[in-house]
Amino acid sequence: MSSQPVTFLGRARELIGTPEAAAVDRGVRRFNEMRLAGSAEYAVMEAMRDRVRAIRLHSLRNLDKLLDRFADQVIEAGGRVHFARDADEANQIVAQILRDTGSRRVVKSKSMVSEEIELNPYLISRGFSVTETDLGEFIVQLADDVPSHIIAPVLHKTAAQIGKLFARKLGVEETADPTKLNQIARDHLREIFLAADAGISGVNLGVAETGSIVTVTNEGNARLCTTAPRVHIALMGMERIVARWEDAAATLEVLARSATGQHLSVYTNVVTGPRRSDDPDGPEQVHVVIIDNGRSDILGSDIAEILACIRCGACLNICPVFREVGGHGYGTVYSGPVGSVVTPGLHGMNPWWELPYASTLCGACEEVCPVRIQIPSMLLKLRERAASEGRLPGWLEKGMSRYRTTATDPVKWASAKKWLYRLSGLVSMGGYIRRVPGPGRGWTRFRDLRRPAKQSFSDWMRDRDGA
Ligand code: SF4
Questions:
Q1: d(CA 330, CA 316)
Q2: Domain total for the chain?
């Protein structure tokens, strides 16, 4: 995993207020409204959220057994299973399958795990041709960019920017009409689909009881990727498993509603092994690559629950920090609240220790999460980890240590409150402090701070009770 040269704060400073951040803000607000509308008309949404939480936690508790069963069933259906410990191994496995099957031209449908393991640069540097076929990912690839949102990779781009890009890279007439842009991409990709040797997809869910792979899209490109070429390679994070079809059905219902407010995604694609002799089409070979890449470490830790995530994106859309900064601020493929837990979990605290601090801890992410994942408490656990590893700036370490000493001693605390009141009188005007010096200046850059009251609430209560 490549690390970014600047910090989250550095990236955020560059992004806030840019047209890119404004496009993200508009996009996530729209997603949010769609989620609210979709949930409001679904009377059993709350009960379904409880059910899906139970399903996902059951999967995590029984992951070893379910993965064994899933692998047996994939093989039974005629597919092949490969286990990859890390990104390197996963990339090597995919490249070897492509070599063994004489495949050079590859089409891909959207897969976050392929972004995570940086599959495209790996394959392209070894002479394979790789084309992304999800519209957003196709645009990202043409622009030599990276996705900014887990369900909407080009949320940061406007239609006009995409029109210019298409004109420059595909030699078509410039347009900002979304329907025309869609058609341009379709026309361009159709021939590439038909000429492809292999298709690579992600996996939204693996169903253990039948060894089936489920992918959901709104464009139908995953269906073409997994059926048109001779070879299908499915990349699956090892936590994407459910035991039964009824579990998959329940999960897909809340996934679509939480992501875009839809009843279901437009295409739900199910692959169970390669084509049979009487099938009119389908791949001759199906390979499932089950990827760990740090997930076992998360599973054995106090943030294991984050693996229950179904990648709906709702926590990104509601997060006030994500709305201002956008996905690129996080410097990694998984952004927003879920990414601030997943990324340090998968890749370690260095250099990702800052991400758990990219949150106001307002709790909105937990409130909207269809799996009710307790993201804020996990962010706090990661902050504790960062502090215990000595990663915080010296002034904050010293400041918190002094605060702890003072706040836990009633005599020192009473004296500190008096001093704070007196000192604040030197810098306040009309009961407000306009500029706080030192590390606190960021707070007063955009807002005033109220001067501390002469009498604290607890003193007031004591006086009142005494009276
Ligand atoms: S953590 Fe919850 S809200 Fe966020 S992407 Fe995952 S399932 Fe959706």
A1: 12
A2: 2
In this structure, are residues 259 and 151 in contact, taking their beta carbons and an 8 Å threshold?
Answer: yes
- b/e burial code for range 229-253 (CB count within 10 A of at least 16 → b): bbbbbbbbbbbbbbbebebbebbbb
Backbone angles phi, psi at 3, to 5 degrees: -100, 150
The pLDDT score that the predictor gives to residue 438 is: 78
For residues 148 and 155, the answer to whether their CB atoms sit within 8 Å is yes
* Same-domain pairing of 77 and 218: yes
CATH of the domain at 89: 3.40.50.10420
Q: Assign 7 to helix, strand or coil.
A: coil
Strands 449-450 and 432-433: antiparallel
pLDDT at 439: 74
268, 293, 318 - which closes a domain: 293
Say how far apart CA 106 and CA 114 lie, in whole Å. 13
Separation of 340 CA from ligand 1 center, angstroms?
12
- Mean pLDDT taken over the chain: 94
Neighbours of 257 (CB within 10 A): 27
**74 Cα: distance to centroid of ligand 1 (angstroms):** 28
Sequence-ordered strand ranges (E) for 404-463: 428-429, 432-433, 449-450
Residues of the chain with pLDDT > 90, as a percent, come to 83
Compute the average pLDDT of residues 117-139. Answer: 97
For residue 198, the enclosing domain spans 42-293
Q: How far is the CA of 367 from the centre of ligand 1 (A)?
A: 10
pLDDT band for position 467 (cuts 50, 70, 90): low
Say if residue 24's pLDDT is above 50.
yes
User: What is the rounded CA–CA span in Å between residue 463 and residue 2?
Assistant: 59
> What is the pTM for the complete model shown?
0.90
Residue 427: which pLDDT band, with cuts at 50, 70 and 90?
Answer: confident
For range 391-420, the mean pLDDT: 90
> For strand 285-291 and strand 449-450, is the pairing parallel, antiparallel, or unpaired?
unpaired
Residue 11 lies in a domain: no
Distance CA 277, CA 281 (A): 9
| 460 falls within a domain | yes
In tens, the pLDDT along 292-350 reads 999 999 999 999 999 999 999 999 999 999 999 999 999 999 999 999 999 999 999 99
Residue 231 and residue 103 in contact, taking contact as beta carbons nearer than 8 Å: yes
Residue 381 domain-assigned?
no
Does 432 map to a domain? yes
Last residue of one domain, picked from the residues 232, 261, 293: 293
For ligand 1, atom 4, which residue shows the shortest CA distance? 315
379 in contact with ligand 1, CB cutoff 6 A = no
Closest C-alpha residue for ligand 1 atom 8: 312
